[in-house]
Amino acid sequence: MYRIKINMTFLLLLTAVFLTACTGGKKSKYITIGMVDGWAEGVAMTHVAKAILDEMGYHVIIQKASTDMILASMHNEDTDLFMDVWLPNTHGTKIAKFSNLMELGTSYTEAQIGMVVPAYVTINSIEELNAHQDKFGKNIIGIEKGAGITTATDRAITDYQLQYNQLNSSTVAMLTELQNAIKEKRWIAVAAWQPHWMFGRMDLKFLEDPKNSYGDAEKIKTFARKQFKSEYPDLALFFSKVHFEDKVMAKLLAQMEDSKDKQATAQAWIKENADLVATWL
Fold first, then answer.
1. pLDDT tens digits for 222-261?
2. 3-state class of 30 per DSSP?
3. Which of 79, 110, 138, 230 has the fewest CB atoms within 10 Å, i.e. is most exposed?
4. How many CB atoms lie within 10 A of CB 268?
């Protein structure tokens, strides 16, 4: 307990010094962070960042929108930051469309997208799907149209000549269908990604992807509008240092999923992880 108090005191001192460096002791302007609602890792990281910036004296506004809308808004200098860019595959073509963006840092490595099934499903590769069309109902449950993983799943259907349709709705709808199928021990294939709390709550596996339709392991990066670094160099440095290890991310995602007040959960998290947050500052 004594150590925690010391850490929190140190953290608050760091934020005070950091705020003074960023703003010269003056009240800062609003900071806007884009977020795709339903993307667990992005929701968690964004709320943690907001909790830290709130303590620094910033007024943080979370703008919920699709990836394309967030990137376009950043390109137009209307949104400051987006913490959930997956590269090189998932969002590579999307980022390439906008020249007025810049990368600040990598918050998570070894991220993965792909086709996921419950562990009790007895196939292990996308190549085996056509032989079991009846069990899967000839459907792959996807998320929102326009998402990078949706494009990758369409590519997988073509690459493997799958006699399947991708059903697109929302991340929440996909997760609900997955949970219901597991309760009933039905076979189901979904377009999914890791890190996500679903892997801590359900026994799942990625199907092997020998044609590499979904690409290799990816990195989750934070991007900003191009002028952000010159206007807030110390804040840009902070975001360049934000990084989550696997175990830290897994625990955070579980806490956020159980939470009815994500901002309060984020505030509690930064207190529990004061040593880690201090390295970012």
1. 999 999 999 999 999 999 999 999 889 989 999 999 899 9
2. strand
3. 230
4. 14
